[in-house]
Amino acid sequence: MSENQNKIALRLQGIHAGYGELNILENINIEIPTNTSLALLGRNGVGKTTLMSTMMGHATLHSGRIELFGKEIQSLPVYERSRLGIGYVPQTRDIFPSLTVEENMLVAARPGRWPLERVYELFPRLAERKDNMGNQLSGGEQQMLAVGRALICDPSLLLLDEPLEGLAPVIVQMLMDVIKKLIREENLTVILVEQSAKLALQVTDQVLVLNRGKVTHHGKSDDLLGQPELLAKLISAN
Predict the structure, then answer these.
(1) Which of 224, 211, 230, 221 minimizes the C-alpha distance to 44?
(2) Which residue range(s) make up the domain with 78?
(3) Which tens digits make up the pLDDT trace of 163-177?
(4) Three-state SS at 26
(5) Going by C-beta distance under 8 Å and a sequence separation of 6 or more, which residues neighbour residue 226?
(6) In this structure, is residue 183 part of a structural domain?
(7) Does 16 map to a domain?
(8) 103 in any annotated domain
(9) What's phi and psi for 82, nearest 5 deg?
(10) How many domains does the chain have?
(11) Could you report the per-residue pLDDT of 18-77, keeping only the tens digit for each?
(12) 192: part of which helix (H) or strand (E)?
């Protein structure tokens, strides 16, 4: 194992967070090594998106510490966290409807491993639609654009919040292949929120299950995938 693989990409310590005065997350503690992937699972409303938003700086952190590659970032604004290496694909996609596909990406572009041409290689459909406006894209094309825009920021940690939600099966398979490539070949540290637990567990190294804002399980994805009864119990917990 290389020295790089021994490093911690993201460390959350004693995280209590929510929105305004509302507290949703309670005492979350996670360490994610560099070049690994984590499936973040749980029923709707248990705090998965809030946890992603807390990492990115959109939610209200009430207490706790966030470290990105050893640097404390909990007091930094969103744009600084992005510059330090966090790429975020929100559930809402948040593309600019009045900009073209190419403009949507160029507005976020940063020198690094993912120039525009390489994003187009990953998503040929975006190259075909590069002059179309954001509001002229299908749901699948919008999701490709959201992922492409995150990559063009040259992240080391990629947060994917339900990137497969509401998409046609053929698009789901294509995006799953892309996620596998990013995890297995591009050495990205990836956190994936996905309603289909089996899909998420098939491509990730670790799994974290939330219930009512608390961690109820943290272990290896393969182990939990091999225990369907435990998985069902964890996901269906009230």
Answers:
(1) 211
(2) 1-85+156-161+191-238
(3) 999 899 999 999 999
(4) strand
(5) none
(6) no
(7) yes
(8) no
(9) -65, -45
(10) 1
(11) 999 999 999 999 999 999 999 999 998 899 999 999 999 999 999 999 999 999 999 999
(12) strand 189-193
